[in-house]
Amino acid sequence: MLTNRNTYDKAVVEAIMKCKEFSGTEVHNLRRLKSLFYKEDEYQKVIQQVKDKKLEELNELDIHGEGFREYLDIMKFQDQSGTAFIVTIYDSDEMWQDPQVLDVFQYEQ
């Protein structure tokens, strides 16, 4: 499950497994859909696109700025039964390699 993963991805899997919103026992096929700078006032737009199943529109988001030190990753994975999930992950320079799960959504295609 965690073989051949970088340190950050391993930390993401650990955060998912600890998350109360996720009741699965395994995380498979973790892949990054989009990485952005985190802006609290833009986060609801991201969540709405995920809820509306408009993942292709995530690529159109261009949240950037100078001096940002907070990050948002939108990732997709499957649990042990093959059910797909989308997870939003927050990280910052201060939390180096200690990402936090913001939201987990079951994703039916």
User: Which range best describes the helical content: under 10%, 10-25%, 25-40%, 40-55%, 55-70% or over 70%?
Assistant: 10-25%
Count, helices: 2
Shape: globular
Q: Largest sheet, described in full?
A: 4 strands, antiparallel
The structural class is: alpha+beta
Number of beta strands: 4
Ranges where pLDDT stays below 50 over 5 or more residues in a row are: none
Order of strands in the sheet with most strands: 1-2-3-4
Strand content: 25-35%
Whole-angstrom Rg:
13 Å
Mean pLDDT metric? 85
Order of helices and strands: HEHEEE
Whole-Å distance between the termini?
A: 23 Å
Written overview of the protein:
By secondary structure, this protein is α+β, with helices and mostly antiparallel strands. The chain has helices spanning 7-18, 40-51, and strands at 28-37, 70-78, 84-92, 100-106. The protein is built from 2 helices and 4 strands; from the N terminus they run H-E-H-E-E-E. Strands 1-2-3-4 form a 4-stranded antiparallel β-sheet, with helices on both faces. The relative contact order is 0.24. The mean pLDDT is 85.
